[in-house]
Amino acid sequence: MSKHPSRSHFLMTMGGRIQCPQCQATSKRTGQQCKAPALKGKYVCRFHGGKSTGPKTPDGRDRCAKARTVHGEETAALRTERRHASARLAMLESIGWALKMMTGPKTPGRKPTSANVACPELGEILKLVTQNSVHFTQS
After folding, report:
1. What number of other Cβ atoms are within 10 A of residue 44's Cβ?
2. End-to-end distance of the chain based on CA atoms, in angstroms?
3. Which of 58, 100, 105, 118 could pair with 87 as two cysteines, CB 3.0-4.6 Å apart?
4. CA nearest 23: which of 10, 15, 73?
5. At residue 139, does pLDDT exceed 60?
């Protein structure tokens, strides 16, 4: 969060006797600002990380740096595994189209670039199929 919030809304609590800043967090879904009061000296409420002080020990800071998670349990290893699985699936689809075994619309979107890294043997099969123009007939 920035040092100077873009919104300067204040809430009146305790029947209008206490004025406090409004939480600066916004909803990803609706885009609306949180309606809770921000904690003293902070720009966000307790629900959006106002109580968080971050890791204190050098060991804790190292763990946070190595984890590199963005949301929850999403780590670099899981993202890599998912990317490779998507690349294998795209490669299998390409082989199916090259062998004329598939009909209908192709999967939309750009194809993964890491297909040969994920599964080099499928890349070799696709090269053989496209070079030899082998066609199978469905019965």
Report:
1. 21
2. 62
3. 118
4. 10
5. no
